[in-house]
Amino acid sequence: MTDTQIREKVKEYRKQFPLLTQDLAYLDNAATTQKPLGVLDAVRDYYEKDNANPFRGVYDLSERATEAYENARAGVAAFINAGAPENIIFVRNASEALNLLAYSWCEDNISEGDEIVVSVMEHHSDFLPWKYMADKKKARLVKLEPDETGYISDEALDKCLSEKTKIVALTQVSNVLGRVNDIKHITGKVHSCGALISVDGAQSVPHMKVDVRDLDCDFLSFSGHKMFGPMGIGVLYGKSEHLEKMKPFMYGGEMIQTVHWDRVTYAEVPHKFEAGTVNVGGAVGLAAAIGFINEVGWDIIEAQEEILTKRAIDGIKAMNKIRIIGSRDAFDHKGIVTFCVEDVHPHDVADILGRAGVCVRAGHHCAQPLMDFLGVKSTCRASFAFYNTEEEVDRFLEELSKVRGLLGYGF
Amino acid sequence: MDFKTFYNEVVTDHNMHPLHKHPIEDPDIEMEGVNPSCGDEITVQLKVKDGIISDASFIGDGCAISQASADIMIDMIMGKNVTEARHLAENFIKMIKGEATPDEIDELGEAGALSDISHMPARVKCAVLGWHTIDEIIKGMDK
Q1: What average pLDDT does chain A have?
Q2: ipTM here
């Protein structure tokens, strides 16, 4: 497909996003994406036509709600090639998925002296649960360090792995550096030393084909709202052999088989991990988002995001006193461009851009250990979805070029 | 809101050329303030003699708003007694919450240049970082 054809397609799909008619360049898609009509309609339709408490009623309406929820689960399973719907646990977001995993899996699998390997580029949600459990179990948290472009070498990985390693927690795409980690290769190495790997897919699943069986990862977590779905729905994928053995994370309604004063048995996977009334509307919305992604297709999504990323990085490189964080090569940035403007604090940069209608993120991006590793306090980040346009990138670059001047600095 | 009223000359001047951003020798009191939304930390240092702030400074990095606000604050509390300093801090925090009267904003002198931040929820924490820290220091002295 030529760039012109991609532009035309993007223009058509963009029309399906009501919010994008506002006069804004929304470039904070790594934080959350906007929602297409198909997703909004699906959620509304569910509540208008099929809403009841699933699993509980024997009447037809409740069965329809159950079906909507379980169809969504099957849709997610197919999307990441999970094998079976039972491998998909619905949670609120990637943070909850990672907490569920760390609490539940570490409880029975981590003891004093064991090692949990976590990369320094993890989002706090893939760092703090492991740190908490490591401290609780008197296990050691081992820091996996990439080079400053985000690349994890075999040597760096080998240094962290040992017979004491029980699990490795690693993101597929860094939410700051945008680097794609070679999960398939790393998983092979982790498995050959007898450990498991949990992959944070929050920034990868929305932007590239992720096939859990091809990667062979043990767990994968992601959020619906970063992939055009509603907020409040997320996914933990796990291999059956692990999920079967794990204890529940939350206790309550709908996660049991039978409860007596002195005897309790829990429901089958995945229901034993889904205590309480579940978010059917969210699951239905996520399934619609997946349908939308499938309709657009990865070829368009990835090609457009590459065009935008390259344009942004080339534009920044042409400016003075703005530094790109991570690799200098646009190809290494999965739709994420993080940068610092010399002398100007990122909050001021984002504020000035925000006043001009350009939405970018500023701060530590919930990755303070990575900020420490890179030797910066905070940064600015522009992150793209396929619905962004080259005009929006140009608007961002134009406003960015004014920032130093507006704060009284020279260029 | 107009850009000029927000990043005005008072703010950019104090940010680019802070007068009080340096450590002082043997401070009597120092306290760190953290802005959890960006991770910025500043440390306020004071020398206090007979209830009078005889010397004061701040160190640490931050955005133009937090740096300018802290610099203006130190300017204003220097030579004041702690009760007056606390009163100013309370006024400033009120102003940023949009609750101060015109008279109270007048009392704040140059710091009044930051009044528009009351309309910018995302920047409130930046503006009050130094003032909140001084408020905490003085509250601690009461105990």
Answers
A1: 96
A2: 0.84
CATH 3.40.640.10 intervals, chain A? 40-293
Architecture of domain A40-293 in this structure: 3-Layer(aba) Sandwich (3.40)
pLDDT at A57: 79
Strands (DSSP E) contained in A22-61 are: 25-26
Regarding the domain delimited by A3-31+297-401, which CATH topology (the fold level of the hierarchy) does it fall under? Aspartate Aminotransferase, domain 1 (3.90.1150)
Q: Whole-angstrom Cα distance, residue A207 to residue A175?
A: 12
Among A22-36, A250-264, A302-316, where is mean pLDDT lowest? A250-264
* Per-residue model confidence as pLDDT tens digits over B71-101: 999 999 999 999 999 999 999 999 999 999 9
Q: What is the DSSP string of A339-380?
A: EEETTB-HHHHHHHHHHTTEE-EEE-TT-HHHHHHHT-S-EE
**Where are chain B's structural domains?**
3-142
Residues of A in contact with B62 (CB under 8 A): 345
Considering only CB atoms, B38 lies closest to which of A344, A347, A406, namely: A347
Cβ contact B13:B22 at 8 Å: no
* Residues carrying CATH 3.90.1150.10, chain A: 3-31+297-401
Q: Could you give the residue numbers annotated as active site of A? A: 366
Buried b (16+ CB within 10 A) or exposed e, A220-236: bbbbbbbbbbbbbbbbb
Cα separation, A287 vs A106, in Å, equals 30
d(CA A345, CA A318): 20
Q: Which residue of B has its CA nearest to A403?
A: B7
> B3-142: which CATH topology?
Sufe protein. Chain: A (3.90.1010)
Residue in B with minimal Cα distance to A352: B3
CA distance A69 to A229: 15
- CA distance, residue B45 to nearest chain A CA (Å): 22
Exposure letters A252-288 (e unless 16+ CB within 10 A, then b) = eebbbeeeeeeeeebbebbbbbbbeebbbbbbbbbbb
Neighbours of B59 (CB within 10 A): 17
d(CA B116, CA A246): 53
